[in-house]
Design goal:
Number of domains: 4
CATH topology of the largest domain: D-Maltodextrin-Binding Protein, domain 2
Mean pLDDT: 79
Radius of gyration: 29 Å
CATH class of the largest domain: Alpha Beta
Distance between the termini: 40 Å
Shape: elongated
Number of strands: 22
Strand content: 15-25%
CATH architecture of the largest domain: 3-Layer(aba) Sandwich
Low-confidence stretches: 2-14, 20-46, 137-145
Structural class: alpha/beta
Number of helices: 15
């Protein structure tokens, strides 16, 4: 499922299951071969089959929950694949896997799309059902290809998983891999899963429920997700400063399906998580090397010297040296009172950091002139130690003229230095700076 990070993505585990009697009717078992030629027998489950031999046709009913991954079934039907194998299949759309479960238990449907928890539940009740094929359940290597997303309704005020506390979240069924994924995401976000009110709603009805305010979020699948997004729903992301779980990193690394992966963390907060994830995938046979970049500006410096023609080990050494030679700066706004090496800061003050240490405090509020002035001072402080190139990444809340102003300032005060700006868009920092 995509909480657009994965980020952070959890796929819906769906199985094509069959009742034991129907499965036998589709095989060359003694029960089907004993039927006299030219006659039709109906099993206790409701499936019927003509005699074995040329022209044998088995009638089966298949229950499914409408969404994009059903396409393979309809392709098989329209292409004559079922007919080629002696199957006359009738499709029955159901609101949820639970409805498919009930129909299979009663014998009105012999095959069905159900999730793993439903299959376990059926077997625990003594209903003889077995999995005959997995339908999906594998996380796509490209997150954009995930058909399941966690979305928030327009105007709900929900910006991240943490905001789901106390909100109504639509699920196609209340005991499913999707509901379990929501609970896991809640724990990772630091909220009690029980604080989220999960509501059972069929996929086709979720978009309306979001628009009407009956639910504030939903785990929805394609093609219905497109309708919800067109009406203003947004895909939830991990909070900007939220640390992913090691399992999330493992999923990303393994999902590349590459024999060699080079990781640029661009953060000083991923140490333990990244170490655990890399250890796991390396033990599984994947070659993973980490370039210790502590900021996106160090990541850019490392990428600038990346050479795919070099041996991976040599390339990582060169990238690590480039990153280490890049001093990193940050301009941010204080959220609480604190004592620093350069004095006491108050909430709302603008702080300048150099290699992780606060070196500048400008009393707030963070008006545009104050931010621009603080950015100039921080650049001057960083260039006092030398440098030829400054990289600037303005954040989402940075003044629009910030990079242009810094460019003019550097041109006037540091004529031997070049400044290059790229859109950063980060939420946690007004400005990120790198000096090489």
């Amino acid at each position: 499922m995509r909480s657009d990070h994965k980020s952070s993505r959890y796929a819906v585990g769906v199985l094509l299951a069959a009742t034991a009697v129907a499965a036998a009717a589709c095989s060359s078992s003694s029960s089907s071969s004993s039927t006299p030629a030219g006659t039709t027998s109906t099993s206790a489950s409701g499936a019927s089959a003509s005699a074995s031999g040329p022209g044998t046709v088995t009638n089966v009913t298949l229950g499914y929950v409408p969404y994009s991954d059903d396409a393979s079934l309809f392709y098989a039907q329209s292409s004559g694949i079922f007919k080629k194998h002696g199957l006359n299949v009738t499709f029955v759309a159901q609101a949820s896997p639970v409805a498919v479960e009930a129909s299979m238990a009663s014998g009105t449907e012999q095959f069905g799309f159900i999730t793993t928890p439903v299959l376990i539940n059926l077997n625990s009740k003594g209903v003889s059902v077995k999995c005959v094929s997995s339908v999906d359940g594998g996380e796509p290597s490209n997150p954009a290809n995930d058909s399941t997303v966690l979305v928030a309704a327009k105007g709900s005020g929900i910006k991240s998983v943490k905001d789901l506390a106390g909100k109504n979240v639509a699920e196609v069924q209340l005991t499913s891999l999707n509901s379990l994924a929501v609970e896991i995401l809640a724990k990772q976000a630091g909220i009690d899963p029980k604080s989220i009110h999960q509501v059972a709603i069929p996929f086709p009805q979720m978009s309306a429920a979001l628009a009407q305010g009956r639910v504030q979020a939903a785990v929805i699948v394609a093609p219905f997700a497109a309708s919800a997004l067109s009406e203003g729903a947004t895909v939830l992301q991990l909070a900007d400063h939220e640390i992913p779980a090691a399992s999330d990193v493992v999923a990303v690394l393994a999902g590349t399906q590459a024999s060699h992966v080079t990781v640029l963390p661009n953060s000083d907060e991923l140490g333990e998580v990244l170490a655990a994830a890399v250890t796991e995938v390396v033990l599984a046979g994947q070659d993973v090397l980490v370039v210790p970049t502590l900021s996106p500006v160090q990541g850019l410096a490392a990428l600038a010297v990346h050479d795919p023609a070099r041996r991976p080990g040599d390339d990582v050494v060169a990238m690590a040296e480039a990153a280490a030679a890049t001093r990193r700066g940050e301009l941010t706004v204080a959220t609480e009172q604190g004592i620093t090496w350069v004095g006491v800061c108050q909430p709302g003050d603008v702080l300048g950091l150099l290699d992780g240490e606060i070196v500048l405090i400008e009393p707030g509020p963070a008006t545009e002139p104050l931010v621009i002035g603080a950015a100039r001072k921080l650049v001057d402080r960083m260039l006092a130690g030398g440098g030829e190139l400054v990289t600037a990444l303005p954040g989402a809340d940075a003044p629009e003229s910030l990079v242009d102003d810094l460019t003019e300032h550097v041109r006037a005060e540091h004529r031997e230095v070049e400044l290059t700006g790229y859109p950063g868009g980060q939420a946690e920092a007004i400005l990120l700076l790198g000096v090489e």
